[in-house]
Design a protein that fits this description.
By secondary structure, the chain is mostly helical. The protein has one domain: Arc Repressor Mutant, subunit A, CATH 1.10.10. It is about 60% helix and about 10% strand.
Amino acid sequence: METALKDAGFPELSWYTVLWELERAGKPTRPKDLAIPLFILPYQLSRLVDRMEKDGLVKRIACKEDKRGHLLEPTAKGFALRKAMWTVYAPAMDDALNRINDKEALELARLLNKLGGIEHVDCGDK
């Protein structure tokens, strides 16, 4: 996916992921609330957000409850970029997922759940 995005002139996949998580949240979000679902360390997220803010894709909003903190919100430019990246990301994801059969997909889901600390989720394997 990284290659497909790069070949199309888009930034790295992590930019898409940050924009998607902010869009899904539907409201300004604390950076610490993004770090966990993105599997990224806080200092890495901070550097990434700095670059994205410089490009006008996200904006920082002062947090009323915590004067030291801030919230993140995508800009109109950020929304537009995320949607444009989807046109490359979706087919690349389909291509990647079509490389495995249904049995392999169930095994992958089982292993990912195990890594995530989930004992059992009905993946249709029983």
